[in-house]
């Protein structure tokens, strides 16, 4: 059926666009590897040069004609994100390094490019005799880690839960009159979180009485083809108010890739873009000030969403970084052939915050949305971040992320060529999602040593009533980087233990089979805090197919952006 559609659409487009349209369709059909992907960018560039309107029309008609997504999804997403891609293509050489990175982000092609060498400058060398933080065995502090709540404030009980869009459970214009599967009050695995589910999470966190909480981002729901600035703003404000009304202890939040509009898109200062996500920083600066204080709130507004704040009563600082400037799916990162090592100065900000922490004799936690080790983080910036981590290793007591929707961890080593317990220097703990789209809703509770600020015990906790009576471990075993490394050694030899981990990734909610190859890749990825060291590097076309199937390393957040649309188009044209 798509074929008839396609002919009709192509006919309409040919009348409207002529040779450029024909060249675009043919380029989509031919796209198979790096050179053909670059040729596709060339065909898109020709149209972009005639203006945003033509670009949107051509791109959208091809998306609909090929049946790459529902027509409203094609139309909405390309209208929101298309102008950014067109802007990129007008400014770059379509056979240069930036174009190759764009092919990597869009289609998983041209993935191998060497790291652009950059030595992060530090204000001071590492101290030769660093301050020691020694546990006095005092009772632990409890901290809650929430992530990826993705609250759909238009969730409609009784609407269709079984639809063909990225999320369901809403009254869409093309919803059937009588749903095949009516949405129930407390959520569905095809839908983002209803408000009641978020209330349940926050009430359970409050009941467990943490000293403070961290939130690693992604408030806004996944109907990304409909989300413009007004909705993103009210969604962010509503969750700030919801947290404030339910939680008595402070919460330290960070910004996720869904917390702007269009999704993923945070412009660089060098782009001089009118829509540079400043509305996000304004909104969160105002909404978070009650927890992080006025100085940090000022930083959120003036440092592209990053800030640092002291935890009241503790010698611990929370440094929140906006990781979206290192995210491959942020298409503002591709609007110049000039290589920028540190877009918007986030790495420089991190260095300054860590140096101040070291100078004060305190310790820091880094929180952010996107963990640095996965293939969706730019290898350059992941490498530079790792340099910062190694320099301030004595100061950084913990690192916490979200984004994958899974309950995971990534280990950093002093020498990635020799991944041993002795060389394990840090770990990034990745919190599971509340949204039920990729597993059962969950959050984490950590026990923290009040002298070292290391995690000494952690237990996944679910906001369902049944878990309320679940016993929690109170052992004070430090969960050190070496501990996590040793756990990967167990996973490599003990199939039962590994399969338990595989089940717990999604809290049993979306378990995908993991064979020996997958096990090997999964363990490799646990040992990769730098994205250059993970084993996800896709072969040409691999990532494209992977996105359309339920793969093991499917990124919970990224499935519905521009890359998904283009991948589906290329696949449909085959
Ligand atoms: C575009 O990039 C390619 C590959 O780096 C280079 O050979 C070519 O000269 C560049 N073209 C322009 C106009 O800069
Ligand atoms: C979901 O919808 C499809 C048609 O779009 C139908 O074949 C399927 O049976 C439905 N599933 C449920 C659980 O109703
Ligand atoms: C910025 O975004 C708003 C709302 O999403 C839109 O109306 C406006 O056209 C955009 N401006 C530019 C310059 O892209
Ligand atoms: C890192 O490990 C590799 C492999 O064991 C070794 O050859 C190399 O010398 C080590 N590098 C450093 C800086 O110790
Ligand atoms: C990790 O394993 C090594 C080798 O078996 C052992 O010496 C070390 O004590 C273990 N470390 C932790 C923290 O479990
Ligand atoms: C493998 O792991 C399972 C689950 O943790 C454990 O019960 C079992 O004793 C382990 N087997 C060995 C040989 O260590
Ligand atoms: C994964 O496979 C590679 C190649 O066969 C092997 O060298 C490596 O040791 C394996 N890693 C694990 C964790 O099993």
Q: CATH class of the largest domain, anyone?
A: Alpha Beta
Shape: globular
As a whole number of angstroms, the C-alpha radius of gyration is 23 Å
| Count of individual beta strands | 11
CATH topology of the largest domain: Purple Acid Phosphatase, chain A, domain 2
Amino-to-carboxy terminus distance: 14 Å
- Structural class of the secondary structure composition? alpha/beta
Sequence of secondary-structure elements:
HHHHHHEHEHEHEEHEHEEEEEHHHHH
What is the CATH architecture annotation of the largest domain?
4-Layer Sandwich
Instruction: Describe the strand arrangement of the main beta sheet, using strand numbers.
Output: 4-5-6-7-9-8
- Count up the domains: 2
The biggest sheet, with number of strands, parallel, antiparallel or mixed sense and barrel status, is: 6 strands, mixed
The percentage of residues in β strands lies in 5-15%
> What is the arithmetic mean of pLDDT?
90
Helix count? 16
Uncertain runs with pLDDT below 50, 5 residues or more? 1-7, 463-475, 539-555
CATH superfamily caption of the largest domain: Metallo-dependent phosphatases
Description:
This protein is of the alpha/beta class and 574 residues long. It has two domains: 123 residues, no CATH class; 309 residues, Metallo-dependent phosphatases (Purple Acid Phosphatase, chain A, domain 2, 4-Layer Sandwich). Helix content is 40%, strand content 11%. The protein is built from 16 helices and eleven strands. Strands 4-5-6-7-9-8 form a six-stranded mixed β-sheet. A five-stranded mixed β-sheet has the order 3-2-1-10-11. The N terminus is likely disordered. The structure holds 2-acetamido-2-deoxy-beta-D-glucopyranose (7 copies). The site of one 2-acetamido-2-deoxy-beta-D-glucopyranose has 3 residues, from helix 14. InterPro entries: ASMase/PPN1_MPP, Calcineurin-like_PHP, Metallo-depent_PP-like, Sphingomy_PDE. Pfam families: Metallophos. Its cofactor is Zn(2+).
